[in-house]
Amino acid sequence: MFKKVRTRIAPSPTGMMHLGTARTAIYCWAVARHFGGEFLLRIEDTDQERSTPEATQVILDAMKWLNLNYDNAGHVTYQMNRLSRYKEVVDQLMEKGLAYKCYATKEELEQMREDQKARGEKPRYDGRWRPENCAGKPIPEGVTPVIRFRNPDDGTVTWNDGVYGPIAINNSELDDLVIMRGDGIPTYNFAVVVDDMDMEISHVIRGADHINNTPRQINLYKAIGGEIPTFAHLPLIHGEDGQKLSKRHGTVSVLAYEELGFLPEAIFNYLARLGWAHGDAEKFSREQLAEWFKLEDCSRSAAQFNMDKLRWLNHEYIKEADDERLAKLIEPRLKAKGADLSRNLDLVGIVALLKEREATLVELAEGAMLFYRDNPIDLAVLDECIKDAATSQEACRLFLERSKDMEWKREDINTLIRSIMKELKIKMPHIAIPLRVLVTGEKHTPSIDATLELFGKERVRGKLEEGLTNWINHTK
Predict the structure, then answer these.
(1) Which stretches does UniProt call biased (Basic and acidic residues) (predicted)?
(2) Fold of 379-475
(3) What is the pTM (predicted TM-score) of this model?
């Protein structure tokens, strides 16, 4: 038995970090934390044509953004640093007669498969370079051999999947797998077994598209002499149309959701809930996930990604987030929109006012731009909305006059507005709409008293004085 629960996430650095990979990482993290074990990161970089340092950095950045703290930070395993170890295990298998050199060319193998298809057979390697099948056969010149694992001919491979339960595959369905290419680079199925053995991984948690790899890997574990871990396969994530999640559904990159204005805790929570449930809990903390998570509670059906639900959840997290943190998060977005942050407006107060309304940081930043840009005043809006212009103009004049020596607090602004409403016998829209339009240039804003407070007394009075004069002249 394994001494400790150990899980791992092992992405290939060939592009973005996919939402499915992130969800798998979250489940691996949750299992490790649930049992007080370790969660490790491995970079599977043997695809030298597609693996790049930039893609590796994307993985590290995504893990950091999601706060998926792995226990081998500073000692991440990179497969390309382990080539000598893979060769060592291959040599051991060769000595035991459990692996052999195969000199079949690419053209030979293609012809073999075409012939099998023509006979109505399942295309598979026919064992032509097994030692008993090639006795006396000359080794072709100029052909660099690959190394194949000699898969057992008989019997059944069985395992109790952590999600799907008992699964059995006949060895007759499996052929002799290539475990090392001619250039000395191991294949996925071989390298992952050696790595997981050496890292003492107790639970291999991954997508259901790997189920067909599992019987091959179990046979390799047995041949090498390693302890077989618990395998758990997760159904894939589908888009809202029921098809496998892909670029046609929008972005599938984890870090793209940071750009779209989602908080990492919301993405973490949403992905964790996407295929797993604990009662009716939709919103939960990382600590609660670690406490509650069990592989057997994962669904066996594909999960369906729903942007509306993600936006709702993100809004819930934004509403409870610290205002100062949100202000810092939207500062670069405001700068990108041309906001002059040297105005020293109360950005924290602006965030506190707006966060009940906005579902993402993008929307929050756009809402905050109300206070940073000087919108042109469209008097035609007042022509549409205000039927008795003279009375509303008098209301604005009184506001301008009586606010001169007033303390600029939301409560005092509200008191002044209501006293003018009572005096002139008007309703709130007759003073609030012209104040909004003349000061902000917008017909709709958050509550007028809070908006005016955050605009600042000097700015409000200056814009109101100018705007009111223009409006009066416009209506003469």
Answers:
(1) 113-131
(2) Arc Repressor Mutant, subunit A (1.10.10)
(3) 0.92
